[in-house]
Amino acid sequence: MKLDDSRQSAFLIQDMFPITEYIEREYTIAGNHLMLTSEHTAKEIEQKAKKVMGMLKRGVKFMPTQPNVIAILEKLKQSK
Predict the structure, then answer these.
(1) Which Gene3D superfamilies did the record assign (predicted)?
(2) Which residue did the predictor score with more confidence, 42 or 12?
(3) Count of alpha carbons within 13 Å of 40, Cβ hemisphere only?
(4) pTM for the whole thing?
(5) Residue 27: how many CB atoms within 10 A of its CB?
(6) Using an 8 Å Cβ cutoff, are 41 and 4 in contact?
């Protein structure tokens, strides 16, 4: 995926945790804050994230050591 500065980058969406209240800090690359200013790029990431969440809910595993993201999501929701 191309970022706003035209660099190619990869996001490991399968490692996401979809709860914004638990975001500790801004995402940085080499100490520089990553900021998406393109609505198109932000929407593309969101669409891919929704697709991955759907796959996780259906039990798809991307890696053998993958944590149970759905169980973690439920625990985070309960602890609110």
Answers:
(1) 3.10.129.130
(2) 42
(3) 4
(4) 0.62
(5) 11
(6) yes
